[in-house]
Design brief:
CATH class of the largest domain: Mainly Alpha
Distance between the termini: 60 Å
CATH topology of the largest domain: Serine Threonine Protein Phosphatase 5, Tetratricopeptide repeat
Order of helices and strands: HHHHHHHHHHHHHHHHH
Largest sheet: none
Number of strands: 0
CATH architecture of the largest domain: Alpha Horseshoe
CATH superfamily of the largest domain: Tetratricopeptide repeat domain
Number of domains: 2
Length: 340
């Protein structure tokens, strides 16, 4: 697509979002559009415009937040419609949405967004189309327009746990932490057993250095799911930051009883042993972790520092030299080496 076409398309999309999310334009209760002609024209530009292929405009970009986890299925909440394949050319809104949703699941954001927009052209307050258009905007890295679409979808369905969760993730990505916490709190009040909301709340608080509060959230997640390994892991890390090493080790023990080769738990338990001065136990943990990831420089540095504490200087130097050989730019490898 040429530069002019891209500019035209982007400005049209931005204006469309303004129209969709403006409650003075779309009457949520009546589901009618006083300015339907304007919006229809914008939608026509977006869906039927002839400025060239639109796929390049919708390159799939990583979401601007922590790596996606299984819990982020809530960001991709997609109701399933029983669509008759023979009716795929029908004008039925449910069929259009189902096809858009199918495109979204396969990663074709261009076709998915075109489908959601077509649904909104016919039914401006279609909750699922608003929600998924917001999610797709977030996946493209457009957090601000995603936020506006999700907030508008909450006007249609204030009870949606999936939308509140998605909004919390987006606000956190925008570093609007107080608003994100309020969003998670509202979600938990609405759905107390929503374990992923407790987890996201805890992670946000940990990132802010509010470890005691974060532990409360992790405990709430563990109360719902006692085998929630991520909650146990992050609780252990928060306890470690608070200097409660024995309690942190208890968390890691719980994880390793369920999954003996859990890499992060092995590493963190080794670090807790190290900080407690239990050097031999720490080295044993680091050795186990290195069988899983032999070139992990963080483990090698920690093992080297622990060996120094035991005055195993030659062995420590080997660890630091190995770090430097793997990545010469890691300063701790060089800082550790001269202590020999």
């Amino acid at each position: 697509m040429g530069a002019a076409g891209t500019t035209r398309y982007e400005s049209s999309f931005s204006l469309l979002i303004d129209c969709i999310t403006d409650t003075t334009v779309f009457n949520v209760e009546a589901r009618t559009s006083p300015s339907g002609n304007i919006v229809s024209n914008l939608l026509t530009i977006l869906i039927e415009g002839s400025a060239g292929p639109r796929t390049a405009r919708y390159e799939l970009r990583p979401a601007p937040c922590d790596p996606a986890s299984e819990s982020d299925r809530w960001m991709n909440h997609q109701p399933t419609f029983q669509t008759n394949p023979a009716a795929q050319n029908s004008g039925d809104v449910a069929d259009v949405f189902a096809r858009a949703s199918a495109c979204h699941r396969t990663g074709d954001l261009a076709q998915a967004q075109a489908g959601y927009i077509e649904v909104l052209k016919r039914q401006p307050s279609h909750f699922d189309a608003l929600h998924m258009l917001g999610v797709s905007e977030y996946q493209r890295g457009n957090s601000q327009s995603a936020e506006r679409l999700l907030r508008h979808s909450l006007l249609v369905n204030p009870q949606s746990a999936a939308t509140r969760y998605a909004l919390g993730v987006i606000l956190s990505a925008l570093q609007r932490n107080d608003e994100a916490l309020v969003c998670y709190d509202d979600l938990i009040a609405l759905t107390p057993d929503f374990v992923d909301a407790h987890m996201k709340r805890g992670l946000l608080l940990s990132g802010l250095g509010r470890f005691a509060e974060a532990i409360v959230s992790y405990d709430n997640a563990i109360a719902i799911d006692p085998r929630h390994l991520d909650a146990l892991q992050h609780k252990g890390e928060a306890l470690h930051y608070l200097g409660k090493f024995d309690e942190a080790i208890a968390c890691y023990n719980q994880i390793l009883s369920l999954q003996p080769n859990h890499f992060a738990a092995l590493v963190d338990r080794g670090c807790a042993f190290k900080d407690l001065g239990r050097a031999n136990e720490a080295i044993a943990e680091f050795n186990l972790a290195l069988t899983i990831a032999p070139d992990n420089t963080i483990i090698l540095i920690n093992r080297g520092e622990t060996r120094l504490a035991l005055r195993q200087n030659s062995e420590a130097l080997e660890d630091f030299d190995r770090v430097i050989s793997i990545n010469p730019r890691i300063a701790l490898g060089w800082l550790g080496a001269p202590t020999y």
